[in-house]
Structures are given as C-alpha cells and as structure tokens.
Amino acid sequence: MDKNFTNAQRADVLTQALPNIRHHNGKIIVVKYGGNAMINETLKQQVMEDIVLLWLIGVKIVLVHGGGPEISDLMAKLGKKPEFVDGLRVTDKETVDIVQMVLAGKINKTLVNLLEMKGGKAMGISGMDGCLIEAKMKDERLGYVGEITKIHIDPVIDLLEKGYIPVISTIGCDREGNAYNINGDTAAAYIAGALGAERLIMMTDIAGILRDKDDVSTLIPAMTVSEAAKLREEGVISGGMIPKVECCIEALREGVNKVIIMDGRVPHSILMELLTDEGAGTMLMGDNNE
Description:
Radius of gyration: 19 Å
Strand order of the largest sheet: 5-8-2-1-11-13-14-12
CATH class: Alpha Beta
Helix content: 40-55%
Strand content: 15-25%
Shape: globular
Distance between the termini: 34 Å
Number of strands: 14
CATH topology: Carbamate kinase
CATH superfamily: Acetylglutamate kinase-like
Structural class: alpha/beta
Oligomer: single chain
Number of helices: 10
C-alpha cells in the first residue's frame, strides 16, 4: 500500500467496503482459476491472499482450477505431443493419466498448501472424489474428454459446512471407473449451479467482454443473457469468448445469481469485484435480474 496513504484513509477504505462485506458474508462464491494468474508466481500469491481474506470475512469460497499449460509441459517432457480438436485436448488413456497427475496431484496440492500458508483452511479434492463430477465420453475423436452428466455436490457442501475452502481439480469419472478430462469453465459453471452460488467468477487473460477487442476502454461492464445473444450475432462476442460466455449462461440457467468474466492478471481483481462498488470485468446476469 502507498506509504502516503494515511491511517485515516485506510480506515475510510475499510468502512466503504463494509456494505459489500455484509452482503457477501455467508454467501457462496465460486472462482474458476487458471491462465496467467496461475502461471505468474507473484499473481498466484496475491490470488491466494485475496481468497483467504474473503474466507476470513465470512465468504464461502470454492476454488475450481485448471492447468492446461502444465499438462502440456509434462506431456512434452514425456515425449508426447499435445493434439487439439476444436480447442479441446485429445485425451487418450496415457494422456488422461498425465492430466490426473498434474491436476489432482501437483497443482491441486500446491494451491491447497499456498492457501494454508496464507492462513486459510483448505481441502483439495478432484471431481472423482465422491463422484463429484460424473461424466461420459463427449466425442470418440477426443478420447477421454468428458461431458458432465451429473454433479454430486455433497462433498463440497460438507467441506463448506466444516469451514474449509474446497479446491477442486476438474477430473470427471463414470460408473465404470474411467477418468475424464473436463473443461474447467464448464465444470465451474455446473458446480456453481449445483451450489446455488451467489456469484461465479471466471478469471481470464483479458479485461472482460470488449466491444472492440483491441480497445480495453470499450469494456462492457454488465449485460443480460439476451444482450449477450445479440452481441454474439453482431460478432462482438466471438472466437474463444463464445464457449466461455456459453458456460456463464449455463451457470445462470443452473441457478447462479451473477457471473463475472474478469482479468486475472490484474492484482486483487477479485477484491475489486466483491468489495468495491465499481467492480471488475464484465457481469452477466439473467434477463429478470436487476
């Protein structure tokens, strides 16, 4: 914090945050975490600090994480070249084992450890634990890439009730014992919906939804589902943003109150979104939501 910031100014900032703290106290917030915010070590430390701060003031945080770059790195070390079809990783039996090792092993436990070091109380689970994410094969061309068929949310609720921050890796399973690689955004949307979360925060590598993709000043701060459909028709929402917005809309349909697409590269963006009136990124809400 700026050394020229007086104690009175610090106190004023906290006082201004009070209504937002009161509003979010006891509410469930699901955070989808990945991208550069996960790769950059300084940002990773800040995100974990922000999550612990929110947890300490009574927000029920659920952290859903990806790990695509680290999966690709391990595949390269093992001499296996990543393949993608329509943006989805082709996942044969060997690759799904690698995905499981990286997501449910290294990344999940690293994040749990970081949250504990920052003063939080965290527990890591995968979508296979308690059959949290039940799935089936999405497309034979993709191999063990899963399509979610059901969310068994009880393990997450149990952890929240016992005061933990659940940290979830997006591996799914079926009743035959097969493991599946699940898209992180999709998993976060379904988990948030099953929890009836107050908000789903999607941390990305861009500022939010821009009217002009090359001009950050054209950020659209809020939109309804109908407005999003119109922007897609106009080509404003295009490319990789289409599946992300579709996941956001699915979350709203499943019962999430509001969804935020924000730039995870901006320090403390989660705190800006939840504890200030200005917020951060683009908020999506249902057509009947004020």
